[in-house]
Amino acid sequence: MRLADRRVVLGVSGGIACYKTCILARQLTELGAAVDVVMTAAATEFVRPLTFETLTKRPVLTSLWEPSRALAHIDLAKAPDAIVVAPATAHVIARAAQGLADDMLTTALLAAEAPVLLAPGMNDQMFAHPATQRNLTTLRDRGWIVVGPDIGPLAEGPSERPGRMAEPEVILAHLERLIGSPQSALRGRRVLVTAGPTREPLDAVRMLTNASSGRMGFHVAARAFARGADVTLVTGPVSLAPPSGVELARVTTTDQMQRAVAQHLPSADVLIMAAAPADFRPTNPVEGKPPKKNQVEQLSIEPTVDVLASTIDARRKGAIMVGFALEAGSGEKRARQKLEEKRLDLIVLNRADELGSGFEVDTNRVTFITANGVRPLEFLTKEEVADRILDEVERLV
Ligand code: CTP
């Protein structure tokens, strides 16, 4: 439970994105946080308090004037680890910027000691209006964190300008970064992660590649961001949504991956090489798409660069280096060899031939191999594996 013992005030103002805030409330509760929802009157027109009460299993506050809860707004403001307002409408943003306190939510915001995270959600024209922009600048200058809004369809139709509230997962990632791991040794460190396969072209459409989905590396990048790291993710071609807050570098070939890693490595405190770069490339790729009858019968290939090995001389002193090893069979000996040859601090060994492990699945059974020993982990989701890897990296850092 990543947010056990955390208390979050979740302010909900009256925009259609309220329906997504229900999902955020549920996700926060599932992660162990105590979630106190405060709704503006307008928000209750979109979603009933009962919905949030059922999801959070806690009473929802909608009014300053309930006799038994006369000082609830002060309690609300004092105790939480963070206050999140999602959606934050133009009106709530304007009231907060002015210091107005005419309902439970704005009163709590004015009395707040905890950090505040806003997820604006409104019509794109209202968001672009200089009044809203100036109010947001005021709040940012006050130290409030603003997440989104996204560009995308609005309730009123398609839009190509920001206005749509950030997705619950994105708000959650920023909130976790704010309050999830205050003690993390990764806070403020630069973490470079690679993910996915690479592709080596035979011609314009055919290629050598492998079945890596990129999931493991994407989870590592997302979780490192949540722990407060500055994350760069170098990824081969994958069909995954980029983790929020992470600098993304897309590459295609192993050579390009090597160059992207070399570019970011000098400033990296940690490299986690979860990618599965193609090990070979066609010696003579051609342009266009030759008909198959023209294809040579024998394919001539050559090895690609080993990205990890190529970094050995360029690493920052004390940088933590993590590699993966995908082996058929136990593979411990081979993995240990890779640990030494590639001068790594940790190898994450997983099996290519075990059901529910390796490529294209959401789970993994891995073994950690360091200079000090071998530690098999239980069967976990890839997100859990990502957290275990980062726990280990924090110990090493
Ligand atoms: N790796 C790399 N560059 C490559 C191939 C692999 O940096 N061209 C990295 C992987 O990202 C992984 C580690 O090296 O972190 C081990 O990868 P793996 O494919 O298990 O081993 P290889 O070194 O390619 O050796 P082999 O294929 O012979 O097992």
Keywords:
elongated; alpha/beta; five-stranded parallel beta sheet; 14 helices; binds cytidine-5'-triphosphate; eight-stranded mixed beta sheet; 33% helix; 397 residues
Q: Helix segment count?
A: 14
Low-confidence stretches: none
Radius of gyration: 25 Å
Strand order of the largest sheet: 12-11-8-13-16-17-19-20
Helix content: 25-40%
- N-C termini distance: 24 Å
The pLDDT mean sits at 93
Strand content: 15-25%
Q: Which class best fits the helix and strand makeup?
A: alpha/beta
Subunit organisation of the chains: single chain
What is the global morphology? elongated
Bound ions, cofactors and other small molecules, one mention each: cytidine-5'-triphosphate
Total number of beta strands: 21
Sheet with most strands: 8 strands, mixed
Q: What does the model show?
A:
By secondary structure, this protein is an alpha/beta fold. The chain is built from 14 helices and 21 strands. The strands form six sheets. The protein has an eight-stranded mixed β-sheet with strand order 12-11-8-13-16-17-19-20, with helices on both faces. The chain is elongated. The model has no long low-confidence stretch (mean pLDDT 93). It binds cytidine-5'-triphosphate. Cytidine-5'-triphosphate binds next to α12 and β16.
